[in-house]
Amino acid sequence: MDAMAGKQSFEADQLPQIIVFGPPTFYKSHDKEFSSKFRVLKPWQSQLPLPEFLTAQAKNIRAALCSGVFKLTASILRHLPSLELVVSGSVGLNHIDLLECRRRGIAVATASTLYSGDVAELAVGLLLDVLRKISAGNRFVRNGLWLKQGDYYPLGSKLEGKQVGIVGLGSIGQEVAKRLEPFGCTISYHSRNRKLSVSYKFQPNIHQLATTSDILIICCALNEETRHMINRDVLLALGNEGVIVNVARGAIIDERELVWCLEKGEIAGAGLDVFENEPYVPQELRVLDNVVLSPHVAVLTVEASRDFYELASGNLEAFFSNQPLLSLVPNE
Amino acid sequence: MDAMAGKQSFEADQLPQIIVFGPPTFYKSHDKEFSSKFRVLKPWQSQLPLPEFLTAQAKNIRAALCSGVFKLTASILRHLPSLELVVSGSVGLNHIDLLECRRRGIAVATASTLYSGDVAELAVGLLLDVLRKISAGNRFVRNGLWLKQGDYYPLGSKLEGKQVGIVGLGSIGQEVAKRLEPFGCTISYHSRNRKLSVSYKFQPNIHQLATTSDILIICCALNEETRHMINRDVLLALGNEGVIVNVARGAIIDERELVWCLEKGEIAGAGLDVFENEPYVPQELRVLDNVVLSPHVAVLTVEASRDFYELASGNLEAFFSNQPLLSLVPNE
User: How confident is the model at residue B1 (pLDDT cuts 50, 70, 90)?
Assistant: First the structure.
């Protein structure tokens, strides 16, 4: 037993070292597997403040794995003088100081399109739930009201025949569109650029997309152009039978205006997996019957967890063996 | 005003007379429109017991409109000696004594495939909700637990790649299958007969379908062959990662066995729009986290309500003007 322990620790010393920030939600399911391949520094287990921890232990660290909510700022990067690679567990990269990484020549690998199918599924699920009042009906039955009050009668709205506007027709947006086609929806989209590979109608601005759509599905990245892109004007253009679904980032919608529009009946409903100040969700939203609120779980499936492990460990192994990364973010 | 009222009532006397049983859920939204075309007898508004009401007022009634839950039995039909047509607002006809209708030569018109899209949408919505834990996540956020307890971590299950078994590949089953294809599911089915028009794999019995499926979606009619077709054996064959969705009739599943399997973790979850003794839903089901319960609303959309009115009034008008019915049930 002692000999074994000695052997293990000797071998562990030979493993390439990485640091994990966050940790990514999926990390805990694969801690053992990562630890069999890498010597893993876990700052969240230390009593030291992060800068001191990094100064003491991370001077020679060449690769980091980080979650989608951990803010990898320039001041943290300053404590990692040997860093060459950041692997993010997330699709969005708004939590990483990409400019600083670029200046320092630090490569960034992302989850890329790995979770697009998972996210698209949740978008369609939230949309059907809002339109067909599934969670609301579920509350009605669970609370015993069906027996007490008789039939549940607020009629749902049929997805078939609806005009769906997709905001951001990247990998996720396209996966959503593909899944909505056999429901008999007409798809149009707004994106930075018109996509020549698709036949969906392009709308040159978000206001026009909202005006011509019954449903808006937010699938774009959060950046300074898209922050609060969905403001009161856009919501009013969507109209009082309109429904909005957000599986991207909370701050793309001006949340205060969204609450106002939902409360006033200026739009019909919302399905939200993301919020401006997670995990805080405004009380006003939490009591509305015409919204479905989801705790940022669009990628949280058993299947995506396995995909995450394979891509993240694959990227790290490629890096340490001087092979090309599996999912490098282009240094635009 | 009086003259108008007199004129209206004179004209109303000329309108063909119908009786409405139930009434169908959608009827109330279209009462005015029906009443402008037909003189409508409404037994539910009378103090008289139904047989007396019928004897007193319905001797000459030739056409009836009935809901999907009103039991149109031989003993009620006996009080309607002039009846020639029953128009049902529902797809299923298990509430009508079809043998007695056939014996008497009473034509039966049904909603036929009118609501197939609405029902298929709800089936997919319930399935995504159960797999991706949408209603459970919604409860978590609404109850403020995200802020208090941190991330919601029970991982969902991805629909992509799943084996879906459809029980009854009629119009609804086919609409469900069509919508699931772009999710990357593999579809197979069990039906009374193999369908030559589809390429999905046919399974000759329900047990084999359950054994080879991750998900069962019940879309068949309720009859003596299908009552309790989904028994404990079938559920155990589906297995502890299996999910079942029912948008057909409650009694196709042995509900007591379903509750047992859900409580014991013998299957993973269920999305149910129908129950054995509606509106009663067992307390044991109402407290489970891995089920989504829906108060029999698969057809309850604004769009289906309009479709119902058009088909029902169209059938009645066709009948009274001696034209072929729009949706006659074949007298097999």
Answer: very low
Query: Do residues A102 and A127 both lie within one domain?
Result: no
Whether residue A327 is contained in a domain is answered as no
User: A139 Cβ partners below 8 Å, 6+ apart?
Assistant: none
Q: How far is CA B231 from CA B237, B252, B258, in A?
A: 10, 9, 8
Catalytic residue among A33, A52, A181, A278: A278
Statement to judge: residues B85 and B152 lie in one domain: no
Give yes or no: residues A8 and A68 share one domain: yes
Tens digits of residue pLDDT in B249-283: 999 999 999 999 999 999 999 999 999 999 999 99
Q: Is the per-residue pLDDT at B10 higher than 70?
A: no
What's the confidence (pLDDT) of residue B111?
Answer: 86
Given CB atoms, is A330 within the 8 Å cutoff of chain B?
no
Instruction: Give me the catalytic one of B52, B241, B278, B303.
Output: B278
Based on the residue annotation, tell me whether A142 is a catalytic residue of this protein.
no
Residues B165 and B254 reside in one and the same domain: yes
Q: Mean pLDDT, chain B, as a whole number?
A: 94
CB atoms B286 and A133 under 8 Å: no
Is the same domain home to A269 and A135?
A: yes
Residue B326 maps to a domain: no
A-chain residues within 8 Å CB-CB of B137?
293-295, 297
Contact A278, B132 (CB under 8 A): no
**What is the token pair recorded at B17?**
């007379």
- Say which CATH number the domain at A269 has: 3.40.50.720
A234 close to A212: Cβ distance less than 8 angstroms: no
B1 vs B38, which has greater pLDDT? B38
Range of the domain at B241: 116-293
Residue A235: is its pLDDT beyond 80?
A: yes
Question: CA of A215, closest CA in chain B: separation in Å?
Answer: 16
Q: Which residue of chain A is at minimal alpha-carbon distance from B27?
A: A153
Examine residue A46 and state whether it is found in any structural domain, yes or no. Answer: yes
CA proximity to B271, closest of B184, B152, B192, B159 = B159
Average pLDDT over residues A237-257: 98
ipTM, two decimals: 0.90
Number of structural domains, chain B? 2
What are the tens digits of pLDDT across the range A66-83? Answer: 998 899 999 999 999 999
Name the percent of chain A lying above pLDDT 70: 95
A10 and A149 part of one domain: no
Substitution target in A138, A174, A309 with the highest count of B β-carbons within 10 Å is A138
